[in-house]
Amino acid sequence: MLTMRRLSLFPLFTLVGLMACSVSNSEGPQGGAGGTPPATGGLPSGAGTTAVGATAGTPTAGTTTPAGGTTVALTTAAAGGTTVPETTSPAGGTAVPDTTAAAGTTVAGGSAKSGGTTAGGGSAVGGSTSPAGGSTAAGGTTGAKGGTTGTTGPAGASGSAGKTATAGTTGGSAGTIGGGAAGAAGAPQPGSIPAGYPTPTADNYAKCKSSTVSSGLCPGGGAGPVCIECHFGGSAGNYAVTVALGGPAASQTYVSCEANRGLLKPVSIAAGQSQTYAFVVNVRTKESEPAENVSAGTPGLDMYFSGPTASPPAVSAIGYALVTAATKPIMVYIAGDSTTCDQPGSGFGGWGQMFPEHFNAPIGIANYADSGESSSSFYGSSLLWGAIKSQWTAGDWVFIQFGHNDKGVADATVQTNLEKYVTDAQAAKVNAILVSPPARVGSIPVGDQSSLHAISASGAAKDKGVPFVDLTALSTAFYNGLGLDVTAVKAKYHAMGTDVTHTSIAGAEALADLVAGEIQKQNITGLVEHMR
Fold first, then answer.
1. Where are the domains of the chain?
2. SS3 category, 198
3. What is the pLDDT of residues 73-84, one digit of tens each?
4. Alpha-carbon distance 518 to 524, whole Å?
5. Full DSSP string of 236-270
6. Which CATH superfamily is domain 4-50+190-530 in?
């Protein structure tokens, strides 16, 4: 990988790498120029600053309408320790549900049904039950729960369950339970650390060095300007990696590896807090495109951390080791072209290099996409499809995307070519997913994309019974929905700010988000369980 000593040579290195990429990558009639020095933009999108949700409030006292009986008084502990009265009708009465609290607040539940079980986590008549904490928004990052649930009293008269609190803000604090202390601020929750993964150590982190860049990306990717780079050496292979993030001060840390590959979107951690994450990092002899004449990069495992000056990246410990039979990952291989590959410079980005951001260990991504490849050329290469087949094992996955470089080829021919990949995968008990190419942005609204052969990928997926991700349609809708003209779209998401076909790092991340979102939408078993 690039080091700070080599940043002074960055324009020349990038020029050579991108020229190699562009020369081998055929473009359509609207294809952008390649081989130009990269722009300094392309910041990864989706900065993960975590907002703290509303603190738990005091629930409104619920009232019940007695039905000929005597009202039984009870008390319920509100969040923060305030005691509020609540009345409940005796058995046979009709209880009026409690009112619902606003987002992020805590509400007292309804009274317990006879028989001793509480309905909706509410209060039991004759006893004292603390209210449940507020909910955090689904899909966001959730804070830890705080406090301890109160003791349920003896069974009382029937009452309706209290309403559930409205979801809190994304990444907000968890509500209190039983009047206990509030949960920690909601940083993105780490994935579980697989058994046998190395314990992160301060000694390993001591091998890293810090630097600062005033513009562009940090070495290894990340907006910076505070950068931390770690070069551990070692042989090629898949590495089990653990990192402990956080420290005495509040921090925001983006994690990447090898040739500008994203591993973890920016995660914000409160002062004094720590989170441990696990990754699978695929280390190849060439860090980026396997069959192109580009720099091999730094030998062995390379890890990078970056963040802003106001809340700089914080790492306390790192663990790494080549995987073993006990820590064997589930590998996801990618077969594709320059719109998908691990690009060697920071001016260009393929969506496959940002795809690892969406997965927890034990999923690992091995991106063998290569510039200029078509549905036929990639299949016949021992460095590309041959290399994938030599490594995969039953239960692994392969994403297949071609079409940009199949210009002038009949849809039926491209479909036949794509089906060959799936046939090979199924014979090896490897799971295949077909992806249509991302749209070319020659205009807004995006014009006709039939030359990309999305119909071929769709047909092959249907005939072979495998999932299909229509990235052509997804990216078209994404670009059209931005509310920007074509110049602004390319400036924000495409290589050099002008390229029609290739994305920048920011654009690559946006496309990776679309692919990941479709996997979740289709609920593809075997992948969704491991997604962040």
1. 4-50+190-530
2. coil
3. 333 333 333 333
4. 9
5. SEEEEEEEEE--SS-EEEEEEETTTEEEEEEEEE-
6. SGNH hydrolase (3.40.50.1110)
